[in-house]
Design brief:
heterodimer; A: 252 residues; alpha/beta; 2 domains; B: mainly alpha; two-stranded antiparallel ribbon
Chain lengths: 252, 326
């Protein structure tokens, strides 16, 4: 850890998650620095998604500690993570197809007027703000009143990323954000992440692609058997070394 | 909008190319088309079908089904189903009858009935969410339990309810509009606001459309489930009270047919059984169409046993056409 920035944005220590006899995370420890893209790579079943879900509060029964900006937190529910400004772009995007873009953007933060059970949505305000949020991210902006179902794969991806970036003021976790995209759309997403990183935003990027990690990440953790087995600065490693670390040909 | 040979791609293309002509709009047209078809067939088969008098009585007899169907719409929008609505209506009606039989005012009886219906509905939602049992099984079970409780409380006998207020509601009206229809339209208006313009309505659709995403976004599945079933129970109680008003008595077995027809009206009206799709106007029209089919068969002198067959055929046909939506 450099002296100028001693406290990591996120510090995970000895995190374990079990489902019956299946051990998804086995005492994983890792950290991510603010203003960086921290990649997590590893084979299928190595614990990448389990780690991200534990950080997001999806697994209420995870053991171990999670500290955000040096302060220990109990990630008991997704709501806790959201209040800490930690958001995610999930592999399946977690969008609501029958709802409009603006409803997806504001799904758990709706603006209302009045009070009680019948307080009404501030619809036009949310539509205008959604337009703004998506505009900052992409040039190919769909109408905020359109349903997500009617959008292309790239547009859906943009909506999911815009939602996470808009609310994830501290950290945005991306689980395989480009797995389902074509080359051009993938490049667009990568450039967007890099641009936001340069503007000071922090990301955790879960990826299968060594090339992608070398292209966009600042640091990388290699997961093996439910642990973070190795840590490298991207500037000090190579694709070949990462392959070796993932397969176990090179061990720490 | 007849379904073409490759409806999925064509509809998707329509959705992409023209914002206003969305899938929901197309789904919304199905009940209108059914209504137009019914009116054309009705005009040919029996000229009196489209007379002002018959239309008024048709809307009057649709009113109770409309109320049931709106409750069912909330539940079905969460990909649930409420098989207990008729039983809740009967239980609420008998509660009203018992309060009146005990010497209290019908007004107090109405409040008790509304509370009983809401509580019974909330119990459905609670069991589904807390015990993680499917909606179908829970409401099938409570349908039986509520029916039994109704028979137990009433000793299987109708309770006479003499109430000028209820009599006025069932027979009176403002101009050509009956009070029954007015109650149904007020329920529809509140339902519309609730489902389209509140946070609760948005979350209902989110949970129904994509449960996994709703969990990931931290939405409360329990609040939504208990909420929609409580609404369905409350509306079943209102319908139960109106049934008592029409019959002048709390009949322990009145209105059993609403069980199926409430679901049918919602589905006919464009509410997807897989959740995530909502409409309030659609189920209203669905209720009119289903009541109209029965009404037309009666006018045309078709024997009464054909009526359930016709209603069943309309529902299956509507569900078949719905397949092309997704």
């Amino acid at each position: 850890m450099s002296e100028s920035n001693p406290t990591p944005l996120l510090q995970v220590t000895n995190l374990s998650v079990r489902f019956g006899n299946v051990v998804a995370l086995d005492g994983a420890s890792m950290h991510a620095m603010a203003g960086e893209i921290t990649a997590i790579i590893g084979d299928n079943g190595a614990g990448k998604s389990s780690l991200s879900k534990a950080i997001l509060g999806v697994y209420a029964k995870a053991e171990g500690t999670i500290a955000v900006n040096g302060r220990d937190v109990v990630m008991s529910s997704p709501q806790v993570a959201k209040e800490l400004g930690i958001e995610a772009v999930f592999q399946d995007l977690a969008l609501f197809d029958d709802l409009a873009l603006w409803q997806n953007m504001f799904i758990n933060r709706v603006l209302r007027r009045g009070w009680g059970a019948l307080s009404l949505l501030r619809r036009s305000e949310m539509i205008a703000k959604s337009d703004e949020m998506v505009c900052q991210l992409t040039v190919n902006v769909p109408d905020a009143r359109r349903t997500v179902r009617s959008m292309s794969g790239g547009q859906r991806q943009a909506v999911a990323i815009a939602r996470a970036v808009a609310w994830g003021s501290n950290l945005v976790i991306m689980d395989e954000p480009t797995a389902a995209l074509g080359v051009r759309e993938r490049t667009e997403v990568e450039n967007t992440i890099i641009r936001l990183r340069d503007a000071g935003r922090s990301f955790i990027l879960i990826s299968h692609s060594f090339d992608q990690v070398m292209r966009v990440a600042d640091a990388v953790w290699v997961m093996r058997h439910g642990r973070a087995a190795a840590h490298r600065r991207v500037s000090e490693t190579s694709g070949e070394e990462l392959v070796g670390l993932v397969t176990g040909a090179i061990s720490e | 909008m007849t379904p073409p040979t490759r409806p999925r791609t064509v509809l998707q293309r329509l959705g992409v190319s023209r914002d206003q002509l969305s899938m929901a709009t197309i789904a919304g047209l199905a009940p209108v088309l059914a209504l137009i078809l019914l009116m054309i067939v009705g005009a040919i088969v029996a000229p009196s079908f489209l007379s002002a008098g018959n239309i008024r009585s048709l809307l009057l007899s649709s009113a109770i089904l409309m109320i049931f169907a709106i409750g069912q719409t909330f539940v079905i929008s969460t990909a649930g189903i409420d098989l207990s609505v008729a039983a809740i209506a009967q239980l609420s009606g008998v509660a009203l009858g018992l309060v009146v039989a005990a010497g209290s005012s019908p007004e107090l009886g109405i409040l008790v009935a509304l509370a009983v219906g809401t509580a019974a509905g909330a119990l459905n939602g609670f069991l589904i969410f807390r015990l993680k049992i499917s909606d179908f099984i829970v409401t099938l079970g409570t349908f039986s339990a509520f029916s039994g409780l109704t028979l137990l409380l009433s000793d299987a006998r109708p309770q006479i309810v003499n109430s000028p207020t209820l009599l006025a509601i069932s027979t009176g009206g403002i101009g050509p509009m009956s009070y029954l229809l007015l109650v149904a339209l007020v329920v529809a208006a509140v339902g519309y606001l609730l489902i389209f313009h509140t946070r609760f309505g948005t979350h209902v659709l989110a949970v129904g459309g994509n449960r996994k995403a709703a969990d990931a976004m931290g939405l409360s599945f329990g609040n939504v489930k208990v909420g929609v079933y409580a609404i369905s129970g409350l509306l079943a109680a209102i319908a139960g009270i109106l049934l008592v008003a029409r019959l002048g008595a709390a009949e322990p077995t009145a209105g059993s047919a609403y069980q199926l027809t409430s679901i049918a009206a919602a589905v006919l009206g464009g509410v997807s059984l897989f959740g995530g799709k909502r409409s309030i106007v659609g189920p209203l029209i669905g209720a009119v169409v289903l009541t109209g089919v029965v009404n037309l068969l009666t006018i045309a002198g078709v024997p009464v046993y054909y009526q359930p067959i016709a209603v069943g055929a309309v529902v299956v046909l509507a569900a078949y056409l719905r397949r092309y939506e997704r």
